[in-house]
Amino acid sequence: MNTFLGFGREHIERHYRKTGQCVYLHLKRHLRQKVPGASGGALPKRRNAKLFLDLEISSDLNSDDFEYEDEAKLVIFPDHYEISLPNIEELPALVTIACDALLSAKSPYRKQEPDSWEEELQASKHAKTLVQLDNGVRIPPSGWKCSRCDLRENLWLNLSDGSVLCGKWFFDGSGGNGHAVEHYRDTGYPLAVKLGTITPDGADVYSFDEEEPVLDPHIAKHLAHFGIDMLQMQVTENGLRDNDIKPRVSEWEVIQEAGVKLKPMYGPGYTGMKNLGNSCYLNAVMQAIFSIPEFQRAYVGNLPRIFDYSPLDPTQDFNTQMAKLGHGLLSGQYSKPPMKSELIEQVMKEEHKPQHNGISPRMFKAFISKGHPEFSSNRQQDAQEFFLHLINLVERNPVGSENPSDVFRFLVEERTQCCQSRKVRYTDRVDYIMQLPVAMEAATNKDELIAYELKRREAEAARRPLPELVRAKIPFSACLQAFSEPSNVEDFWSSALQAKSAGVKTSRFASFPEYLVVQIKKFTFGLDWIPKKLDVSIDMPDFLDITHLRARGLQPGEEELPDIAPPIVIPDDPKDHTTNHFVESLDIDESSVMQLAEMGFPLEACRKAVYYTGNLGAEVAFNWIIAHMEEPDFAEPLVISAFGEGASSGAAALGAVGLDNQPPEEMVAIIISMGFQRNLAIQALKATNNNLERALEWIFSHPDPEEESDPALDTMDMENNANANILAETGSEGPRIKDGPGRYELFGFISHMGTSTMSGHYVCHLRKEGRWVIYNDLRVCASERPPKDLGYIYFYHRIPS
């Protein structure tokens, strides 16, 4: 009655011992048989005055014969003294008022119902009379960038003049530089649509004048003005979308194994999750995550310790919520077979306890999506993006000495070659997902595809039923070959030629993870702006060997590109933030930038992080972001002075030497965060004149550094002991990479049904105890025909050598 937190019976004693709070409100709902009427039947339906709690009512039992009754009482610890409510005589007035307010309060989760946010949206007063300029602007289906800065995310299209501008910067580090709002203040053009949210059903529209999200009944017309065609995706007369009549129905049936009688599975590890409204992407990912032993040990195995040391408000603690969800999925308490013959007898004796059929991850979803512009909504999301978002939160919230996300992390070696000079550069970056392109040109049934396309067009022209779908069959080997082939590098600047040149990049594995996550890149945009999904069948192997993709490093006869930075162009007005502050010629690893941007950080902050950490990879740059995200210029564009020194607070990361002749603390922290000891980091920086890249090379070439006793060093260690304890999560064994053989076995996959990641449904298949199991939200059954060829994300486990 002090914190207003809710606890189950098994956790109430722990909370009392931990906090000393002794007054609790005990709420209970009973299931009783209705009193029969004079005619022998149940009394006619009426409003149940015995229900005062805003809870969901189970529809499993016949409401004509049974009814619920709520009970509330105060419990005083440690004696468990109970006071039934209402009780005005024994309780102080303040306690009575507080109890009444709690009992009559609406559930906070009512606000998260799927349709609640839609009801609040109103048609904009500007939609009907919106003026659109005839300026010839046409918006391409991809490659957008803010017209006032370099941001390529959170972009909004002004529906009056077609300007593409970035949105506001949010407290969680996402968003943009607010140029869309500035443009409205300058022009008065009121409506904008968020790029990337346009679907056949509409789009996210914001009214700057009304200062709220709105509906635009004429959105298709307004988008068509700029060449964005939604008409082809509109609903036809028979209620189905074009190109959606045959393919999608077939896909839904195959992936969900419709038409086959599936045997339900019960017990630990076979617990379903309720769909909270387009939350199937979360359900599928979390089922796969908690099938991995490392995550089971980290959260469920450490559950007592996590609960004992959780903060006073556990609803806002990531590890507590992960442990709670993992326990719900793995304990078996919420996955019990339904009672049969004993059901009626138990109901008659008022001993019936409703069987739990799965769990409802409301609190987990509310916390993990808090502050995120996409996951906090009730719209469908990309399971791959949510997976990376989850890994980011795991990284930022360590639990014990073991970081379970280590099992996914691997190093990618990128070899960039100047086509003219033939010189090369090798760089490493951290990644968690292997993204495989779909090699459509390698389809083995091209003749069937051509014949099907001709029949489909003829059927559409004659208004006949479409022919049976023919799906492209792509060999997995072709997709793997496409992954390993060189790709062109846009705007490549050759340090050997001191000019822009043609360049190619090849990626290889510098290390192999313990668990390999493979994403099939099925989603794209058509030239007509229609989001499309490549409906293909890929023969994904049960056993995968990618040993041949192991990186080899600099080869004999290869010559490295000189370590020369591109020339820097200074704008005439350095205070003008509406133009680029330098030409896109800085040596910045764009792949690391985009990897950080996918985590939700502003693009400019990601560029600065990669630049100031010397292109050492996304993991090192991530630590720079965490250390600087509270600074006021965190999301400002990178500005380089005429002398090549950073204009922001990250200048120390370039190698500036402190007054006490000690290495910059930021550089020390970066090396510590990679798993090295503090004294080794300082020794390496001193030996290399504070050059971060050379310092790392020095560490690897000096596995057993000399022990030195430096009084100044000891003093500095004492002053920064707290910081060192936070950052040094591992010993001196090196970066947290679990390398090993490149041979894997498939144990799970997530499939998507629908036309794009913004719609449709996700299902997860996992191999457990020698057989495949399908997890379709609350429904958990033994799989008879797992559609391994139609998956979107695949999970492989390393085969021990």
From TrEMBL:
<dbReference type="InterPro" id="IPR050185">
    <property type="entry name" value="Ub_carboxyl-term_hydrolase"/>
</dbReference>
<dbReference type="GO" id="GO:0031625">
    <property type="term" value="F:ubiquitin protein ligase binding"/>
</dbReference>
<dbReference type="GO" id="GO:1904294">
    <property type="term" value="P:positive regulation of ERAD pathway"/>
</dbReference>
<keyword id="KW-0645">Protease</keyword>
<feature type="domain" description="UBP-type">
    <location>
        <begin position="122"/>
        <end position="230"/>
    </location>
</feature>
<dbReference type="Pfam" id="PF17807">
    <property type="entry name" value="zf-UBP_var"/>
</dbReference>
<dbReference type="GO" id="GO:0036506">
    <property type="term" value="P:maintenance of unfolded protein"/>
</dbReference>
<dbReference type="GO" id="GO:0043130">
    <property type="term" value="F:ubiquitin binding"/>
</dbReference>
<keyword id="KW-0832">Ubl conjugation</keyword>
<dbReference type="GO" id="GO:0050821">
    <property type="term" value="P:protein stabilization"/>
</dbReference>
<dbReference type="Pfam" id="PF00627">
    <property type="entry name" value="UBA"/>
</dbReference>
<feature type="active site" description="Proton acceptor">
    <location>
        <position position="761"/>
    </location>
</feature>
<dbReference type="GO" id="GO:0006508">
    <property type="term" value="P:proteolysis"/>
</dbReference>
<keyword id="KW-1017">Isopeptide bond</keyword>
<dbReference type="GO" id="GO:1990380">
    <property type="term" value="F:K48-linked deubiquitinase activity"/>
</dbReference>
<dbReference type="InterPro" id="IPR015940">
    <property type="entry name" value="UBA"/>
</dbReference>
<keyword id="KW-0072">Autophagy</keyword>
<dbReference type="InterPro" id="IPR038765">
    <property type="entry name" value="Papain-like_cys_pep_sf"/>
</dbReference>
<keyword id="KW-0833">Ubl conjugation pathway</keyword>
<keyword id="KW-0963">Cytoplasm</keyword>
<protein>
    <recommendedName>
        <fullName>Ubiquitin carboxyl-terminal hydrolase</fullName>
        <ecNumber>3.4.19.12</ecNumber>
    </recommendedName>
</protein>
<dbReference type="GO" id="GO:0004197">
    <property type="term" value="F:cysteine-type endopeptidase activity"/>
</dbReference>
<keyword id="KW-0863">Zinc-finger</keyword>
<dbReference type="InterPro" id="IPR028889">
    <property type="entry name" value="USP"/>
</dbReference>
<dbReference type="GO" id="GO:0004843">
    <property type="term" value="F:cysteine-type deubiquitinase activity"/>
</dbReference>
<dbReference type="InterPro" id="IPR016652">
    <property type="entry name" value="Ubiquitinyl_hydrolase"/>
</dbReference>
<feature type="domain" description="UBA">
    <location>
        <begin position="587"/>
        <end position="628"/>
    </location>
</feature>
<dbReference type="InterPro" id="IPR013083">
    <property type="entry name" value="Znf_RING/FYVE/PHD"/>
</dbReference>
<dbReference type="GO" id="GO:0010506">
    <property type="term" value="P:regulation of autophagy"/>
</dbReference>
<dbReference type="GO" id="GO:1904288">
    <property type="term" value="F:BAT3 complex binding"/>
</dbReference>
<comment type="subunit">
    <text>Interacts with UFD1. Interacts (via UBA domains) with SIAH2 (when ubiquitinated). Interacts with BAG6; the interaction is direct and may mediate UBL4A deubiquitination. Interacts (via UBA 2 domain) with AMFR; the interaction is direct. Interacts with UBL4A; may be indirect via BAG6. Interacts with NEDD4.</text>
</comment>
<dbReference type="InterPro" id="IPR001607">
    <property type="entry name" value="Znf_UBP"/>
</dbReference>
<feature type="binding site">
    <location>
        <position position="166"/>
    </location>
    <ligand>
        <name>Zn(2+)</name>
    </ligand>
</feature>
<dbReference type="GO" id="GO:0008270">
    <property type="term" value="F:zinc ion binding"/>
</dbReference>
<feature type="binding site">
    <location>
        <position position="149"/>
    </location>
    <ligand>
        <name>Zn(2+)</name>
    </ligand>
</feature>
<dbReference type="InterPro" id="IPR018200">
    <property type="entry name" value="USP_CS"/>
</dbReference>
<feature type="binding site">
    <location>
        <position position="146"/>
    </location>
    <ligand>
        <name>Zn(2+)</name>
    </ligand>
</feature>
<keyword id="KW-0479">Metal-binding</keyword>
<feature type="binding site">
    <location>
        <position position="179"/>
    </location>
    <ligand>
        <name>Zn(2+)</name>
    </ligand>
</feature>
<keyword id="KW-0677">Repeat</keyword>
<dbReference type="GO" id="GO:0005737">
    <property type="term" value="C:cytoplasm"/>
</dbReference>
<keyword id="KW-0597">Phosphoprotein</keyword>
